[in-house]
Structures are given as structure tokens and as C-alpha cells.
Amino acid sequence: MPKVTYELPDGASHALDVPSGQSVMDGSVRNNLPGIVAECGGSCSCATCHVFVEEGASCFDEPTDEERDLLEYAEGVRPNSRLSCQLILTEDCQGVRVTVPDTNG
């Protein structure tokens, strides 16, 4: 099972096992971690699940045009910005680390 480390806005770090087939957003929401609001529930329509992918980016598909468009409206976007609802985990996704910005929601 892939392990995802979430670096939260308050400085806390949580390493969680998230089943393959679920998204980085799902792992956060199902474990009640603060910071990933996920207002749209993962339908790629709100950008409140914005994260910075610090490690493990190569295991994810490239962002879609829709995701890129939404990121244009997110605060604090960086080259490693992604929407966590679009980061679907596979068994190859070992050691993924994301930082949750203090700007979601």
C-alpha cells in the first residue's frame, strides 16, 4: 500500500497508508487531516485541494488541461503545484510527500 506523507500548514507531518486507486485527497479527507478542504469532493472543479508535490511526482499522470486551468486560480501556485484529487495512487507511488499550503479554502 502506498505511503503518503502530508506536511500540514501548522508544521505537523503525517505519514499515512493510502490504498492504491485512491487519491492523495482521499487519504487526507478520510483521515481528517486539516488543510485539504475538497469542497467539490474530488471532481476537479474547485482547487481547494491544492498541494505541492515534494517527492514522488513521477508516479502520477501529467496534469490535464482542466487541472491546469483550475490551478491558475489557486493562491501561491508553484511549478510543483497539483490538485490532490487528481493524484491517483498506484503501487508504484512509494514515498510520496506533499505539502498542504495554508491557502486552501
Supply the key terms.
single chain, about 100 residues, alpha+beta, Ubiquitin-like (UB roll), five-stranded mixed β-sheet, 2 helices
- According to CATH, the homologous superfamily is Beta-grasp domain
Secondary structure: number of strands: 5
DSSP strand (E) fraction?
15-25%
Q: Uncertain runs with pLDDT below 50, 5 residues or more?
A: none
Can you name the CATH architecture?
A: Roll
Describe the SSE topology:
Layout: E1 3-7, E2 13-17, H1 24-30, E3 50-55, H2 65-71, E4 81-83, E5 96-99
Parallel strand pairs: 1-5
Antiparallel strand pairs: 1-2, 3-4, 3-5
Protein name: (2Fe-2S)-binding protein
GO molecular function, one term: 2 iron, 2 sulfur cluster binding
GO biological process, one term: P450-containing electron transport chain
Textual characterization of the structure:
The relative contact order is 0.30. The chain is about 15% helix and about 20% strand. The model has no long low-confidence stretch (mean pLDDT about 95). It has a single domain, classed as Ubiquitin-like (UB roll), CATH 3.10.20. It is of the alpha+beta class and about 100 residues long. The longest helix is centred in the first third of the chain and has 7 residues, at about 25-30.
Give a quick rundown of the structure.
The protein is of the alpha+beta class. The chain is built from two helices and five strands. It has one domain (3-99): Beta-grasp domain (Ubiquitin-like (UB roll)).
